[in-house]
Amino acid sequence: MTNVQSVRSAVRIMELLAEEPLLGISDVARRLELPKASTFRIIHTLADSGWLEEEFPDSRRWKVAATFGVSFVRPSGSFSEAAQQAVNAVRDETGETTHVLVPSGAALMVVFRAESRQDLRTTLSIGTRVPWDASSSGAAYLASVPPAEREQILGDPEALLERAGDLAHLHRIIDRAVDRGFAVIQGRWRPGIGGVAAPIRDGAGRPVGAIAISYPLSRVPEFSPCSAGELLARHARVIEQSV
Length: 243
Fold this sequence. Notes:
The strands form two sheets. A six-stranded antiparallel beta sheet has the order 5-4-3-8-7-6, with helices on both faces. It has a two-stranded antiparallel sheet with strand order 1-2. The chain folds into two domains: 67 residues, Arc Repressor Mutant, subunit A (Orthogonal Bundle); 167 residues, Beta-Lactamase (2-Layer Sandwich), CATH 3.30.450. The protein is an alpha+beta fold. The two termini are 36 Å apart.
């Protein structure tokens, strides 16, 4: 395969996985009628460049990477515009730093944000990776998938126990998020900082990310996480119209 052919094949692979994520290498090779060895090499090259990623580590099911996906999958910018408008609106209404996050391998990644204008505020930079098991955005996302998939995302139970500590408390947070439509976590990931998040779903009802607020715990009860969660859920529905 020449360099030009490799580039064309890479573009076709990106286009296919943008339209049909979570395909294996054999599936991609068969759909595009490409040699399996070449498909393997191109996919891993794209992954090394940050353009593709596995659904979970070692899942062998591939998708467009979160850091590349918004611009590649939606060249019209509709998702980008809706997400940025939402974080700006929530920040302006609550006064707190607001983010949109999407899955990125073994974590969620901040891809849009609007920072609080208050002197005492929380800050997460674009590209920050947020843990599934200790963040409100992770809990909101996990509450939106079937239990079996939830356990797969969280990974090895022993490693999770060592990393997250009180698993019963984590599962109570997720169960409550299932009932309420948003998740609240206080001080689990970063001491003194709370988070509230609502899932963003696609047309099939599967989560594709989360919209979240982070806030200093010293602001409670002036800041109401439950009211903020309801606000985030409403804005998530607006973002979903662009997904």
